[in-house]
Amino acid sequence: xxxxxxxxxxxxxxxxxxxxxxxxxxxxxxxxxxxxxxxxxxxxxxxxxxxxxxxxxxxxxxxxxxxxxxxxxxxxxxxxxxxxxxxxxxxxxxxxxxxxxxxxxxxxxxxxxxxxxxxxx
Length: 121
Hints:
Blueprint: H1 6-15, E1 21-23, E2 38-43, H2 53-56, E3 58-62, H3 65-78, E4 81-88, E5 91-97
Parallel strand pairs: 1-3
Antiparallel strand pairs: 2-3, 2-4, 4-5
């Protein structure tokens, strides 16, 4: 992703087939801030039973900077995410987890699946 804005990230997700972004209501921000802070998280299969990435989906936490960073720390401690992106002031500031975001229709490979042999054609 060349643009590090929240709107570009949301457009990238839509382009990959992720239409729905569910709210992540971990601990709602009581400050009614409009400073453009948000945390985007794709949970793991431990959180949601899924065969494709689109079934895991994306959860979005909107809040002030302090509440968003607190949410990020909780997620980092729990470790139940595939991707975690933090936006402050509408700009990507931190990225955790897998670097590549797979299309929503892509199957999730388990750690138990043997690697495909590219020579078998």
